[in-house]
Amino acid sequence: MSSSRYYAPTQLNEAVQQLAQQGARAMAGGTDLLVQMRSRLEKPAAIVDLKKIDSLRRVDITADSVRIGSGVTGAELGENTALVACYPGVVEGAELIGSTQIQGRATIGGNLCNGSPAADSVPALIAANGICEITGASGERQVAVADLLLGPGRLDLQPGDIITAIVLPKPVAGQADAYLRFIPRTEMDLAVAGVAVNLTLDEQGVCQQARVAIGGVAPTALLVPDAGAALVGTRLDATALTAAGEAATAAARPISDKRGTVEYRRKIVAVLTRRAAVIAAQRTGRAS
Amino acid sequence: MNNPAEKPEIYQYVGTRSIRPDGVDKVTGRARFGADYFLPNMVHGRVLRSDHAHARIVSINTEKATALAGVVAVVTGADFPDIPRTMIHLGEQQADIRDIAENVMARDKVLYHGHAVAAVAATSLEIAEQALALIEVVYEPLPVVMDLDTAQADDATLLHSDQVTMTMTGPVENAQPSNVAMYMPLPKGDVTQGFEQADVVIENSFQTATVHQGYVEPHATLVDAQVGGKTRIWTSTQGPFLFRTQIAGALAMSVSELQVIPTEIGGGFGGKLSIYLEPVAVILSRACSRPVKMVMSREEVLRASGPASASRIWVKVGAKSDGTLVAAQAKLEFEAGGFKGSPMVPAVMTMFASYNIEHVLLEGYDVVVNKPKASAYRAPGAPQAAFAAESVIDELALKLGMDPIDLRLKNAVDGGDLAVYGPPFEAIGLKQALQAVKAHPWYGQPLAENQGRGVALGFWFNVGMQSSATVRLNEDGAVTVVTGSPDIGGSRASMALFAAEELGVPPDRIEALVGDTESIGYCDTTGGSRTTYATGMAVVEAARDAVQELRRRAALTWELPLEQVAWQQGRAVDLTAANDPLPLAELTANAGQTGGPIAGSAELNAQGVGPGFGVHLCDVEVDQETGATKILRYLAVQDVGKAIHPSYVEGQLQGGAVQGIGLALNEEYLYTDEGVLDNPGFLDYRIPVASDVPMIETHLVEVPHPAHPYGVRGVGETPIVPPMATIANAISHVIGKRVTRLPASPPRLLALIDQ
Questions:
Q1: DSSP H helical segments within B4-108, as ranges?
Q2: Is the Cβ pair A267, B678 closer than 8 Å?
Q3: How far apart are CA B325 and CA B314, in angstroms?
Q4: B625 touches A at CB < 8 Å
C-alpha cells in the first residue's frame, strides 16, 4: 500500500484539480476504498479526502427541495429528524450500510460512487427521482441518479468530477417512501435484493403516483415503471401488490452468485416490492 | 488424615463466579495474542498458495523472488525433509505425520485451492508479497474431486494413488486404490431382525456442508530457529506439547530440540490443534538465520486451515408402536479434505450413543476430496451425526403421535446402560436434562403462525489424558498455579478456584498461568473437553501436595506428629489444641527456616472420563416467502457434572448453541466448479452476528462425575451437538416438510418450501 499521495482539500476547486491527476481516487468515508486497497484491488496514486469540504457535509431542506450533501454519513442522516420525516426510505437505505462504526464514516455519496449493484442507498434515491449535482473540470452539471449508473463500478463521471449533492424534490402531502432489502443475516451483509417504493396516496387512500426501484438484481439499480404503474389508481389491494411484484420480477436481470441464485432473486424482489409498498403506504397515514 | 476437601459437600470457592484473571488484559488490549510477538532482527514470512484445487506441480522457479532486494529466504517442498509414512499418536487420535508435513507444504501435488506451494521471508511484509508474485509455478491441472459421489465413482480421479481403504484391523478385502481412506462398521445385534420387530420405520438421508471453526484470531507464529540453539516457537495453539510433537515429526527433529510457547489464544474450537505455519517458519528461519514471523490473513484461514467435514448420512430407525426403539442403521460418509482423517469414527460412535437400541448397524466412510484437510471442530463429527439421528427421532415422534421428549426419555441411556460402542455409562444426567427441558415454562407454550418448536439431544465422550500442574507458594502467601493447558474458555479462573478451595486461599490471591513446553510437564491439549476435568484434577492433586507440605512444616514447628496437624480454611490447625493455628502466609514467610520453598506438583493420566449429554429447545419463525429463519428463543440444558465457574460453563453452552445456529442457518463453503473457494471471508461465510441470535438461556444439571474429586465432567463440546437438529426440527414443523440439508440458508429453504 506504499506511495499513495494523500490530499485533504477544504475547497471544492482544489479537490477537482487534485482528482484530475492520473490514478487519483476520491475518498469520503473510505469504507469501500480502504477495503479495496487492503484487498489489493486498488492502488491509487493519490487519495483526495473530501471530508474537509464543508459544503459537502450539509443537508438543506427548502420549500421545494431536499439537498443532501454527498459527504453526509449514514449516522448523520439518521439523526436528521426533518430529513427522516421527508424521506424515511432514503434514510433507512443509507442506515443499512455497514455496522454502527461504519455508519459514522460511510457517506451517501460514497455509497453511490462505489457503483455496487447492491448499494443500499441507491434504490430509494432513484425512487425519489434524485438528481446528482456534479462539479468537475468542465464546470457544473446535473445527472439523474438513475442515469449516473452505467454498470457495476461504472458511473457517468469524468476524472475530476465530484458529486457534491443529491437533490430530491420536497415530498407533497400523502407522499412517503420505504426501502427493504433482503440479507441472510440481520445486519453486516450485502443486499441479495433491495426494493424502494416512493408513492403518494390521496385522502381516500388511492395511489396517485408510485415509483419502484430495485437493487441487487441487475448490473445497476433500476427504476421499474411497470411496477409503479401497477399501483397507481389502486388502494394497494392484493391484486395491485401482486402485479407490482410481478413487474419487479420481470424487470430484474439477476445473476447467480454466492449471495443468491437467479431464481431466488426473482422471487424475493417481488416479495420485497409488495412489502415495501405497504410500508410506504402506511407511512403516508392515508392507507386504507 | 483430615482433609475437608476430600469429598466436600459445600464449597467455599468452587462454584462461585470469581473475576476472570485474564479479563483486564483482554479488554484493555494488553493481552498478547499470536501476532503480538516481535524479536530483534525479525523478518516476515508469507506463503504462496495454490490457485488450483488439484494439480501436479511440474516446476517451481524461485530465482526472481530470491533476487528481489529484501528477500532473505525462499523455500519450497524440496527444502522440507522427506518424512516416511508413519502414524503418530496425537492425544485423542492417530495421524499420519507425512500427511501433516505435505499439508503444511505441498511436494508433488496440490490437493486443494489454498495448499501451500512455497514460502518467502523478507524484511517487510510488502516485499514478501511482491516476492510471492515472482515465484513461477507450473501446474498440470487434474480433474477436481469436490464431493462424495465424484470421489466414490468407479472411474474416480484419485487424490492419492497409493491409498487403499483401511479398516481398524487392516486393508479391506481386495483393496484397490481408492479415495475412500477408511471404512468402519459398528454392529450390535442383528438389524434385519430388529427392523422386522418394528411397527414404525423412518428412513431419510441428510447432508451438511463444509464449515469453518470461525475463531476470531487467525493463525500466527514467531519462530527463532537459529543454528546451535534451541528452536523457539511462539504460537497460538490449543496444545503446545501437541504442536511440539507434530512440528518435530514433520521436520524429523526430536521434541527436545523445540520449545513451544503458547500465546494468548483468540479461539480455536479444535482448529488450533493442527499445525500450518510453524514448520514453514522453522525452515525459513533456518534458511536466513533470523526470527521469522508469519500471520495468516482471514482468506488464508478459510482457504487452508480448518475446516469441518461436509457429510452425507443415510439413516433408518425402527420402533415399536409404544415408542421403544428396536433398530437403527446408518451409512455415514464424511469428507476428509485432501488427506485422510475426517471425524467419521466419532460420528459413528456418538450417533446413537444416547439411546438403548438392541439392533444397530452403523457404517462409516472417510473420503478424500479436493478441499482443505478437515481439522477437529468442537465434538468432531457428532453434530452431523446428531442432525441425522435426531431428525429421524423427531419424525418418529410425529408419526407415533408422541411427545418428542417422552419418546427420548423412553429410550435414553442411564447409569449402568451400555453405550452402543461398548462400555457401560457411570452416573449420567441425560434423563434429568430431558426432564428439565420438559419442565421448562416454554415447553408446551402455544406458537403463532409460521412458528415452530424443535428439540434435540446431543452426546460427547469427553476425554481425560495427561496433565501436569505445579502449585507454588510465594513468601507473601500468594499462590502461583502453572499448567500446560492453554486457556480458551476461562480455564485459568477454574484452575484458580480449585487451588483456592484446596488451599483455603481466596482466588484473587492465586495467579493461574499457562506454561510453555520447558516450564511445565507434559500436558495434552485444550481439547476433548478435558481441561477442567484432567488438568483440574492435576491442580487439585498439586494443591493437596502443597497442603501436605504445609502440614509437615507446621508439624515441624509445633514438634507434633503430622497426623495431629489438619489443614482448615487456609490455616494449619493443631488438633491437640496446644497451639494457635498457623495461617498459610506465616508458614510461607518462614519457609526458609523450615526447609525451603513450599510447592506441590502433580503429573497424571486422568482416567474414567465423564461423558456429557445436552438437550436443546428452540422456537423459530420462518418467513415462508423469503426462506429466512429467525431464532425466537433458545434453551440449552446440559449435565455438567459440577460447574466449577458457572459463568464460563454457561458461556460454553451459549457459545456452542450460537455456533450451531450458524451451522444450521447460513455457514457453508461455496466452491466454484473448478474447486475455487468463492467465499473466503466473513462477509459471505456467514457466521451469526450478535443481532442474529437471542440471548441463549441455559440450565445446568449437575450429576457429579464419580471419578473426579469435584464431580467435573467435560462441558465444552457437547453444546454444539444438538443445535443443527434442534433448529432443523423446528423449521420442519413450520413448513411441514423435513429439512434434510443444512445450512437451511434462505435460498435453499425457500426452494424446499416452494417444491
A1: 23-28, 63-67, 97-104
A2: no
A3: 17
A4: yes
Q: Does A271 sit within 8 Å of B626, measured CB to CB?
A: yes
B628:A264 CB<8 A:
no
pLDDT value for A288: 76
Per domain, the residue ranges of chain B are 23-31+464-606, 401-459+610-754
Nearest residue, CB atoms, B746 vs list A184, A187, A263: A184
Cβ–Cβ below 8 Å for B691 and A187: yes
Cα–Cα distance measured from residue B366 to residue B387, given in angstroms and rounded to the nearest whole number: 18
Judge whether B298 is closer than 8 Å to chain A, CB to CB. Answer: no
- If one looks up domain B401-459+610-754 in CATH, what number appears? 3.30.365.10
- Distance in angstroms (rounded) separating the CA atoms of residues B479 and B499: 8
Whether chain A has a CB inside 8 Å of the CB on B678: the answer is yes
B102-126 pLDDT per residue, tens: 999 999 999 999 999 999 999 999 9
Q: Which domains does chain A have, with CATH numbers?
A: 5-52 (3.30.43.10), 54-169 (3.30.465.10), 175-284 (3.30.390.50)
Distances (CA, A) of A269 to A90, A156, A178, A223, A262: 18, 26, 14, 13, 11
Which of A1, A35, A186 to mutate to probe the B interface, most B CBs <10 Å? A186
Residue A86's pLDDT is what? Answer: 97
Q: How far out from the chain centre does Cα B508 lie?
A: 29
**How many CB atoms within 10 Å of residue A204?**
8
Give the residue on A whose Cα is nearest the Cα of B693.
A186
CB contact (8 A) between residue B665 and residue A184: yes
In tens, the pLDDT along B382-427 reads 999 999 999 999 999 999 999 999 999 999 999 999 999 999 999 9
CATH number of B23-31+464-606: 3.30.365.10
Rounded to the nearest 10 degrees, the angle between the axes of helix B536-558 and helix B491-503 is 30
Q: How many CB pairs under 8 A join A and B?
A: 49
Q: Where are the beta strands (DSSP E) in B445-597?
A: 451-460, 465-473, 479-483, 510-514, 565-568, 571-574, 582-583
ipTM over 0.85 threshold: yes
Distance CA B222, CA B224 (A): 7
CB contact under 8 A, A258 and B126: no
Q: Report whether A156 contacts A114 (CB < 8 A).
A: no
Q: Do A184 and B678 touch (CB under 8 A)?
A: no
Contact flag B684-A261 (C-beta cutoff 8 Å) = no
CA atoms of B372 and B680, how far apart (whole Å) = 12
Out of B626, B627, B692, closest to residue A185 by CB: B692
- Say if residues B716 and B530 touch (Cβ distance below 8 Å): no
Contact call for residues A20 and A137 (beta carbons, < 8 A) = yes
Classify the C-alpha dihedral B747-B748-B750-B755 as positive or negative: positive
pLDDT digits (tens, 9 = 90+) for A50-109: 999 999 999 999 999 999 999 999 999 999 999 999 999 999 999 999 999 999 999 999
SS (HEC) of B384-433: HHHHHHHHHHHHHHHHHCCCHHHHHHHHECCCCCECCCCCECCCCCHHHH
Q: Is B632 on the interface with A (CB under 8 A)?
A: no
Main-chain dihedrals φ then ψ at residue B428, nearest 5 degrees? -135, 160
User: What is the distance between the alpha carbons of residues B254 and B370, in angstroms, rounded to a whole number?
Assistant: 32
Q: Check if B23-31+464-606 and B401-459+610-754 are the same fold.
A: yes
Answer yes or no: are the C-beta atoms of B237 and B260 closer than 8 Å. Answer: yes
Rounded-to-integer distance, Cα B592 and Cα B728, Å = 64
d(CA B747, CA B753): 10
The whole-number pLDDT of residue B4 equals 38
Three cell numbers written together for B282: 522453522
For residue B365, pLDDT beyond 90? yes
Q: Which of A1, A187, A264 sits opposite B750 (nearest CB)?
A: A264
